[in-house]
Amino acid sequence: MGLNDTPSSERLNIGFFGMRNAGKSSLINSIAGQQVSLVSDIGGTTTDPVNKTMELLPLGPVILTDTPGFDDSGALGDLRVKRTLEVLKVCDAAVFVTENDTFGNDELKLIGIIKERDIPFFIVRNKADICPDKTGDILKALNSQAPGSMGVFIVSTHEGTGINELKESLASSLEGTAKKIRYVADLISPSDTVVLVIPIDSSAPKGRLILPQQLALRDILDAGGVCVVTGVERLTKTLDSLKVPPALVVTDSQVFSKVMDLVPDEIKLTSFSILMARYKGFLDTAVRGASAIDGLCDGARVLISEGCTHHRQCGDIGTVKLPGWIRKHTGCDIDFSFTQGHGFPDRVEGYDLVIHCGGCMLNDREIRERMELSERSGVPFTNYGIAIAHMNGILKRCLSPLNHTPC
Question: Which residues share a beta bridge with 367?
Answer without folding.
Answer: none
